[in-house]
Each structure stands twice: as C-alpha cells, then as structure tokens.
Amino acid sequence: MRRIQHIIVCALCSVSAAVCLPVSANDTLHYSLQQCREMALTNGIASQAQEESRLAAKFNRQAALAAMFPRVTANGSYMWNNADVHLLSNSTAFSFGTATVNPDGTSSFDWSQESAFAKIETAAQGTVFEESVKNLETQAGQKIADAYQVLYDKLSPDMTHIVVAQVGVTQPIWVGGRLIQGYKIAKASENIASIEADAKHDETIYAVDEAYWRVVSVSKKKALAEQYYKLLCQLEQDVKAALDEGLVTQADLLKVTTKRGEAEVKKLQAENGLTLSNMALAQICGLPLSTSFVLDESGLAETSLPIDSVNTEVAVSGRSEIQLLEQAEKIAKANAQLMAAGLQPNVVASAGYVYTNPNVENGFSSEWNGHGFFTAGVVVNVPIVHADDILRYKAAKHAANAVTLKTEETRELLTLQTTQANQKLMEAQQKIALARLTQNNAAEVLRMAQESFAAGLITSSELMQAQTLWLSAATDLVDAEVEAKTTETKLRKYLGQL
User: Fold this and answer.
1) Would you tell me how many other CB atoms lie within 10 Å of the CB of residue 382?
2) Do 308 and 432 belong to one domain?
3) Residue of 92, 103, 146, 313 with fewest CB within 10 Å of its CB?
4) Is 84's pLDDT higher than 80?
5) pLDDT recorded at residue 363
6) Phi then psi for 456, rounded to 5 degrees?
7) Residues 188 and 118 in one domain
8) Eight-class DSSP state of 31
9) Does the pTM of the predicted model rise above 0.85?
10) Are residues 7 and 139 in the same domain?
11) Using one digit for the tens of pLDDT, what is the confidence trace for 326-337?
C-alpha cells in the first residue's frame, strides 16, 4: 500500500506542476499572444478590406476638394454627309422676274410681264429698237442669273466633312455652398473609414485574445483530463491487486472502472475541443486550419489593468461608436446645408476656344486655316419658388437632430457598458483568488485521502470523490484565469487601450 501511495502522490505532484506553475521565460515557445495579434492584423482579409475602404474615402475627399478648382475639358466630333446643303432654293422669284440655277450648273432669268424691260420691249415692237431692246433684256437677265448663281454657290457650303473641336474651362464661383458642404461630407466619410479601421483593429485583437486564451484553457483542461485519467488507471490497477488479495469487493472495482471510462470520454472531448480551438485561432491569424499551436501561458495568472485608473467619461468619448456618431452628425448637418444651397443663387464662369470646319469666320469656308474663336461668359441661376428644396432642407435638419439625440443615448449606454465591464473584471479577479484557495484545499484533501486510502481507512469511492473534487477545483481555476484575461481585454477595448 505504501507503493500505491507513493505512485498516487507522484502523479498528483506532476498534475499540480502542470496546472499551477507558469511557463518560464527560458522555455521555447512557438507563438506568443503578440505574435498571434500581428499575424491576424497582417494576414486578415477583413483588415485588408478595411484599408482599401479607407483609401477609397481618402480619394473621395480629394475629389471633393478638386471640384472647387477649374475644370478643363476638350471635345471633338466628326460627321460625314452624303447630301449637299443649299441655303437658297434653285429658283427664286422677284417682282421683276425669276432667277433659276439649272441642274446642269447653268443659270437663267425670266423677266416678268410687270418688269420695265417687258414694258420697253412692248413699246419698241415694230421699231428699229426692238432687236436692241431684246438683246439688252437678254444680257441683263443673264447678268442677274449669273449673280444669283454666284450667291447660290456661296450659300451652298461643303458639308460633306464636318469637324468641330472645343477646349473649355469652367470655374464655379458660387453654387450656394454645395462644394464646401460636399467637401465636409467627404472629409467626415474619410474620418469614418479611419475610425472603422481602428475599430476593426481592436475587434481583431479582441478576437485573437479570446481565441488564444480559449486554446490555452482547453489545452490545460486536456492536460488535467489526461492526468486524471492516468490517476484512475493507476487506481484501477491498485484495486485489482487489492481484489486479488481479498481486500476489496468486485463492486469497488466496477465503480473505479466506470469512473475511468468516464474520464476517458472527457479526455477525448478535451482533445476534440483543442483541435477545434486551434482551428479557430488559425483562421483568425490567417494560417492554415491544420496549424498546431504551442502557446505562451505565462500571462494567464495575472491581470495588469489598474482598476482605479478607469476614467469612464474619457473612455466613452474615445469609443469608436461615439466617434462614428459624431462624424455622422457632421455629415447630417452638412447635408442640411447642402439642401439649403438649393435655395441660393448659383454663379458659374466659363471660357473656351472653338474650331469648326466649315467655319463661319468669313462666310462659309471649308479651308483648313486653323482659325477658331474664343468664348467667355458667366451664368447666374436664381431660384425663386422651389418648394421641394425647402422641404428637403427641413427634413435634413430633423435628421441631423435625430443623430445628435442618438449620440447622447449611445453615450449613456456605453458608460453603462464600461462600468459593467470594470465591475466584471473585479469580480473575475476575486474569482481567481477564491478558485486558487479552493484548488489548494482540494489538493490537501486529496493528499489526506490518499494517505487514508493507503492506510486502509477509506474506500476507493471516497478517494475517487476527492480526486473528482480536485479536478473540479483545478478546472474552475483555469476558467477563472481565462475569464479574467478575456474580461481584461474587453475592458481595454472599451477604454481604447488595445
């Protein structure tokens, strides 16, 4: 029996060393908490997406600023036409006759009966002047026809190839404050992207810490389950030996065997839980899910946050939720001013250079002489009756008031949340102290039970009860330490100290 006592005490000492002693600084560690944090922040897809959103907001803010400066544009067009354009008809009637441009390119003129030539010709009939008058009438008519043909050709520009080019500059002078308010909105949006990136940073760290300490917790519980299983296996062998000597009954052996089977199931559950916890931590850190972690457990037994230094008011003002609502309030107020801009005059100046071919600088010319013309002007728009803009302005003002009230409400809720987290951390620290005391007492009870069992004063069932109480106390201590670490991280997140 002394040999049995010696074996049980040695096993108990090994379990106590595995649970209670922190890992020394000289041990080789595969991953520390800080390393896991850095991997998650570097490899996480969510962090990369947040950075892209921040850059997008930055360029939107720069675009809003650039809208206040002149805008230079260039336009060009080309058009081909298969039909000629004539500004004059091919036949035009005057009071003294009709001028005609024939399809073959010739021209003619027909005098009317009311013309002076027609009257002279009538008066000269039968005289020696008749032939001279007819000749003069024909020549004068042809001169008029030729002149009309020249005018007809001049007013028939070559529109087969049309080219228009324009370079212009537009500068808004006053647009009711739209550009200024638009820049304020873009600036607030950029701040929101930056705040969200910081909030995502804190959320990632908190998720890493939670997964990290979960792995530590499950790993410790797995070690406890394995050591507890070994204790029961050794006890089963000792009870079998005692049964062979007639010191115990078969029922005592069955109780130990049943307990050993339950311990084996718990050991398997702990192994499966550790595998899943490792996969969860690997996923957050951006590592393959098959990664196996050996973690630094040295900081588990301590919480370093000074409880007395918590300044709830300052902490709440720095919370991302409040900062986001403050930026949203700025956007809402700027949007109200943007709606008010629709009720104010708009002044825009523009200047440009235009080149056309055919050009109208000197009649209609199809020559590529490179000549164009400059334009400059100012456009003023004054709204008089815009009922929809008035209503939109009122709606935007009420929306801004709603955001302000939401900010105050959120501030109160976050104050309550931070206070609760602070109190929970103090409770967790007290739990650790109580769990350590309980664990020490359970270890002492187990030691006394082992001595009594070795002396034959208690049964194996009573010894198993002491072992179970010791396992429960050791497990509670691990849970209390992990709860304190995760609560500390949560409070640091609330205080902006991550």
Assistant:
1) 8
2) yes
3) 103
4) no
5) 66
6) 80, 20
7) no
8) B
9) no
10) no
11) 999 999 999 898
